[in-house]
Amino acid sequence: QVHVVESGGGSVQSGGSLRLSCAVSGLTNSRYYMGWIRQAPGQTREVVAVVENGGRELVVDSVKGRFTVSQDNAENTLSLMMNNLKPEDTAMYYCAARQGYYGVLTRLPPTTWFNYWGQGTQVNVSS
Fold first, then answer.
1. Residues 2-60: pLDDT tens digits?
2. Using CA of residue 118, residue 26, residue 18, residue 44, what is the dihedral sign?
3. N or C: which end of the chain has fewer CB within 10 A?
4. Strand 18-25 to strand 3-8: parallel, antiparallel, or no bridges (unpaired)?
5. Beta bridge partners of residue 82, listed in sequence order
6. Which is it for the CA torsion 61, 124, 85, 121, positive or negative?
């Protein structure tokens, strides 16, 4: 059984920083993808970043230059370092995973592409 667990999050003022971490266990395939998805109040979910283990990383344009995604393949963990946070970054942030290999990603996948999801961690940014 696959488990996805997020940690981090919290409340900061605009311009502040937070780091989110995600650990995935129970994967049976050495090839997989992990991603961060967020859902702001009253909004649909949005893929923020996706990585293939040991491969390419993609980040949504709205956070480029502010958010950095990193992975530790040996530990099946994924981190999201969020700098210069803005009030519009306020959202529930989810970590998700998909097993298998589906080629090199050239664009962010839809949120429904991911098979396994964590419970989410809340990020609040005040102005």
1. 999 999 999 999 999 999 999 999 999 889 999 999 999 999 999 999 998 877 899 99
2. negative
3. N
4. antiparallel
5. 18, 67
6. negative
